[in-house]
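User: Structure please.
Assistant: Input sequence and predicted structure:
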Amino acid sequence: MAEALGNPMIRMPGSAKKGEIVEIRSLIMNPMTTGLQKDKKTGKLIPAHFIQTVTITFNDKPLLDIDWSTAVSSNPYLAFKMRAEESGTLKMVWKDNTNGSWSADSKITVS
């Protein structure tokens, strides 16, 4: 499964009118295992592997800081809305409990 990890995606409009509410959607591939499940073949516990934090900035200014736990489903999907006030870059950083880190960004032009 290691080859399927990461691959973060952000979907948001490339442009918006000033003051418009835009939706940002994201997805990251991660098994989100709790460490309490057993492998069906071997009977051994599957190690915990889950996203712990998601940090979102817009033009390098904090927008959201999210703490996740093992209660989040595999391949977590996140959606939120923001008001488009200026053009810029939205950046998302996902960090997991195994010191993995992934990031993605997307630009929006506001007119």
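The chain has a mean pLDDT of 94.
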